[in-house]
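Q: Given only this backbone (393 positions), what sequence would you predict?
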């Protein structure tokens, strides 16, 4: 019986090729949408989460809100960093200011980011440093030293040489390289650090580039479960300081990660809504195809019922036809989704795995829609009077 119903379904699709193909395309596009979008958001969510966690879940930062600050206000100062550093729940703290400057090394010129930080910055950001980072003495004395990123080493220095001890010219200021930031072991990116960056003591930075205010203060805390409490305490602290006239933003890795996950959740929800709408439109098309099939097979239905076919057999024949659309469309959709994800993964360099839950959801939605829009025509066919079918034919 099952084999016969499958044969009937296949013959029906062949008879109405154009209408059948259009209905199947709708299911294929729906499956591709939900599988690709959910697989991408899952991969991107993991990528962002790993990136944030690579710098540490205990990381927080304060920055000046330039959009709401009073003109001429001083912004964050080095004293603010000292006050935050002295809080009981703060482990390490560092000022952070960055500028884009020109660089010339070994006959190669270009632009890089120069960041002014202190001796605790590498611990705060969980940096893997070759040789060493800036020390307390160099920070206090405003020494002409720097730590370069791996990208700067590869771009401006000879790739195979030890950069430590080399001189580097940044906008006419010469610095001695004391270390190099090694790339992470896994492909992650928190978006908080420029890959094309050179770190120098903030004391040197403020003097060489006439920078009097701090863009950001980054610090680590003792207990990540108390972030909301810490935010309140820092808010009170900064509100009581004398350098008024500006507003500031207090953020943490945990809150930023939660916000990123919310965005990916909304994207998934939106893709499900779009997929559902597309599925429903496809379902209406399938229902019309089956109704047309019933109209064209009236004589066949009448003859089968006349020789003893039950209502259930007629019902199952057209339900199988509806399900055949679903199975055919889902199969093509999953194969194309897998191929598309492989291509995107290769181009982007991000490891994207086909989401099993997305496939299950796509298959489930397709089956439900096809059954929903197929059951009414199938019942109608099962209830047909065999005599009327044969007479009208």
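A: Predicted residues:
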């Amino acid at each position: 019986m099952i084999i016969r119903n499958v044969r009937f379904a296949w013959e029906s699709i062949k008879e109405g090729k154009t209408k059948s193909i259009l209905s199947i395309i709708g299911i294929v596009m729906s499956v591709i949408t939900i599988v690709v979008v959910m697989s991408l958001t899952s991969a991107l969510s993991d990528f962002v989460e790993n990136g944030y966690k690579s710098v540490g879940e205990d990381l927080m930062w304060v920055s000046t809100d330039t959009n709401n600050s009073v003109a001429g206000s001083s912004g964050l100062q080095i004293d603010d960093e000292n006050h935050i550093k002295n809080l009981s729940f703060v482990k390490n703290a560092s000022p952070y200011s960055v500028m884009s400057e020109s660089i010339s090394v070994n006959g190669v010129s270009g632009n890089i980011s120069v960041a002014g930080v202190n001796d605790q910055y590498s611990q705060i950001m969980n940096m893997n440093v070759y040789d060493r980072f800036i020390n307390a003495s160099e920070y206090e004395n405003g020494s002409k030293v720097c730590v370069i990123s791996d990208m700067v080493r590869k771009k401006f220095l000879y790739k195979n040489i030890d950069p430590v001890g080399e001189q580097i010219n940044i906008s006419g200021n010469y610095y001695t390289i004391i270390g190099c930031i090694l790339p992470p072991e896994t492909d992650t990116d928190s978006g908080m650090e420029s890959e094309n960056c050179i770190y120098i003591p903030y004391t040197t930075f403020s003097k060489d580039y006439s920078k009097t205010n701090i863009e950001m203060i980054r610090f680590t805390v003792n207990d990540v479960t108390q972030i909301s409490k810490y935010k309140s305490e820092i808010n009170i602290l900064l509100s009581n300081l004398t350098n008024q006239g500006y507003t500031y933003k207090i953020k943490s890795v945990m809150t930023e990660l939660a916000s990123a996950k919310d965005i990916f959740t909304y994207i998934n929800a939106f893709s499900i809504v779009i997929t559902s709408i597309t599925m429903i439109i496809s379902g209406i098309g399938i229902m019309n195809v089956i109704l047309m099939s019933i109209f064209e097979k009236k004589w066949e239905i009448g003859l089968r019922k006349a020789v003893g076919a039950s209502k259930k057999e007629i019902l199952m024949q057209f339900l199988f036809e509806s399900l055949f659309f679903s199975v055919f469309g889902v199969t093509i959709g999953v194969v194309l989704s897998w191929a598309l994800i492989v291509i995107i993964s290769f181009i982007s360099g991000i490891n994207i795995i086909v989401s099993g839950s997305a496939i299950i959801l796509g298959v489930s939605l397709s089956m439900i829609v096809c059954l929903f829009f197929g059951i009414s025509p199938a019942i109608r066919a099962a209830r047909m009077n065999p005599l009327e079918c044969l007479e009208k034919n």
